[in-house]
Structure formats: structure tokens, C-alpha cells
Amino acid sequence: MRDIMTEFSEVAPFELQVSAIKRLIAEAFEKAPRRSEGTDDAASVRVVLGGNGLPERIQVVADWRNRVAPEKIGDAVVDAFRAAVHKRVVTWAVALEETGWQNKANRLQQYLNDDNISMPRGRLPAAFKREPAEIVPRTLEDVAEGFIKAADRISKTPLRVKVRRQNIGWGAAKKIRLILDDDGIKSCTIDCEWASARTAAELSEGLSKALAVARLSLAKNLKDNAPNVGLEDLLGSALELFVNPHRFTE
């Protein structure tokens, strides 16, 4: 029978590693932007994201007809959302860099790469192992952005889970159709003939109604899914990042 102190000496370092990674993740959460906004290239639509990264407001500018064709206004909504997401990721990354978060992550990675660490490289405890999947090498920049996006999918209350159901919101007597999932706006379709005769206020009102309906559907789907992934799932990703460096390119 193995000596209990031998087993403890093997487990304890890993417990410390998990604790350090949890603290690192918590610090990343604290620096998440509370509000972000973006516009399409023509600045015809503005989308505002909340602290959880989901759209909270969609606003069409007063002179939108001078900026975009009626048949393109739905695409402008999606483009504005994507711009807001990009700004959010960049703002978050800058905040982490300014607070030295990346340096802490680098030091932790160096520590975990030490040959004296008891946990073999490339191996994870069963609790953190994932289903086998094809390994696609990524750059560290891609990993950093992926980590931020993964962290963004987890809110403290309630615990969010990955949901891929389409949540459809209708507005303006079904002249507006907006599809939302837990990553945000997937598509927006607006009847161009109807839109061409509408003011910015009317379009904004219809979009707000569609967004509200889609968000309610998303909230229900999140609630109906058992919260069996979340911080542990993200922790598993972080551990894989540190102990499986072969996953990444230079």
C-alpha cells in the first residue's frame, strides 16, 4: 500500500496549481468591461453590450437612409454587434495587460512547466478531462482571445452554460426577425420595403422588441439547461493550456 504522505505530496502541488489558476481566472473576470458599444462601417446602427457580453440596446441613427440601403439595415445590426464584441475583447485584453495579468499567467506557466512539478505534462485529473477532440494548433494570441471569450460565457449569477438553440425575436409585426444565442446576435432580417418607410425611432423600437423577446427565450433556455459546465469547464481549459503546450504554435 502506498504511503499516505507520498500520495499527499503528489496531490498537494496540484491543489496549489488549481488554486493559482482559479485566482488568475477570478482576476480576469474582475477586469471584464461593464459596457461596450460598436457601430457598423457606415455608423448607421449602434449596439451596446452589457457586462455579460450580450446586446442590451440596438439603436438606428436618425439619418440612417443616407448611410445604408434599406435592404442592408439588418446586416448593419449584425456588423455593429460584431464591432462591439471586438471592442470588448480588445478593451478587456488591454485591461489585463495594464494590470500585469499576462505576466502572472506567464510566471504560472513557467512554474507548471517545471520538471519538478508532480503532475505529468499532458495529463489532467479525470475531473478536468474533456471528450477527445481533434487538436488544431493555435497561436498564443488566438488562445488569449479564446480564453477571454470563454471567460465571458460564464457569469457569476446565474451560472451560464453553452446553449446553441436559436432564440428568435420578432418585432414590428414580424417585419423584424432577430436570432440570438449565448454568443450574441447571429442574424437580423428586416423587411426592406417596410424599413424604407420607417424612421430611425420606429426601427429602433422594433429592434428593441425583437431583442427583448430573443433575450427572454435565451434566458429560458439557459435556465432549462442543467448548469453542469461553467467555471470548472473554464478551469479545465486553463489547465489544458498550461500542461499541453503542444496544442499551440509559436
Relative helix content: 40-55%
Q: Work out the strand percent.
A: 5-15%
User: Can you write the helix and strand succession as a string?
Assistant: HEEEHHHEEEHHH
Number of strands: 6
How far apart the termini lie comes to 44 Å
Q: What is the general shape?
A: elongated
Summarize the structure.
By secondary structure, this protein is an alpha+beta fold. Helices cover 48% and strands 13% of the residues.
Summarize the topology.
Elements (H helix, E strand, L loop, with lengths): L3 H27 L5 E4 L5 E5 L5 E6 L12 H26 L2 H12 L27 H13 L14 E5 L4 E6 L2 E7 L1 H5 L3 H25 L6 H13 L7
Question: How would you explain this protein's 3D organization?
Answer:
- With 250 residues, the protein is an alpha+beta fold.
- Helix content is 48%, strand content 13%.
- It has seven helices and six strands.
- It has helices spanning 4-30, 73-98, 101-112, 140-152, 192-196, 200-224, 231-243; strands spanning 36-39, 45-49, 55-60, 167-171, 176-181, 184-190.
- Strands 1-2-3 form a three-stranded antiparallel β-sheet. Strands 4-5-6 form a three-stranded antiparallel β-sheet.
- The longest helix has 27 residues, at 4-30.
- The two termini are 44 Å apart.
- Mean pLDDT is 75; it is low at 1-9, 118-130, 155-161, 226-232 and 242-250.
